[in-house]
Each structure stands twice: as structure tokens, then as C-alpha cells.
Amino acid sequence: MAIADVAVIPIGTEGPSVSSYVADIQKILKRYEEDGTIRYQLTPMNTIIEGELSVVLQVIQEIHESPFSKGIDRVATSIRIDDRRDKPSTMEKKMQSVKERLK
């Protein structure tokens, strides 16, 4: 199971707000989540996506393309992937591991 940290940055927007682009991306992610292929979590600075690596990469490509459909000519996407294969890993398990060490 892969966990990816993704930030899609449309370049050349009319103003400083990008919330409409983020909302469009969240709609795409929701569609994948509803069919059970990924789980995701929106944060103030990025989105965390969890699923099989091949699906996560497919989703990343689709969300990267999203701002282009609104007339943006340039998009920068930052991706960081944690692909652990020695044992099952989830967003919650990673957080719980840290919380246990803080006790």
C-alpha cells in the first residue's frame, strides 16, 4: 500500500486563491474513494492519497491534468511517495506509531 503526499499548483491564475482548483481535485479524489480504490485526506497544504501504487499514480496524473481543463497553461505538481512493502501501512497506522512513542 502506497501513501502519497501530493500538491498540485496551478501557475498563472488570475489571483492568489487556488481553492476552486483544489475543490475540483477533491471531486476527482472523492470519485476514486467512492469506488474503494483509494483513501485520501485534504490538509491545508496538500492532499494525502493512500492506495495501490499503480492506482495512486493514475490518480495523481488525473489531478495534475485537472487545472489544464480550466484554462491554466502551466501546472507544477509535487509528489512524495511512501511505498512500504514489508508490512501493511495506512495513514492511521503511521500516526498511531508516532502517538505511541509520545506517551
UniProtKB/TrEMBL annotation:
Region spans: Disordered = 82-103
GO terms for cellular component: cytosol
Q: Where is the Thiamine-binding protein domain?
A: 4-99
Pfam families for this protein: Thiamine_BP
Q: Which InterPro entries match?
A: MTH1187/YkoF-like, Thiamine_BP, UPF0045_domain
What does the similarity note say?
Answer: Belongs to the UPF0045 family.
- Protein name (record): Thiamine-binding protein
Organism of origin is Peribacillus glennii
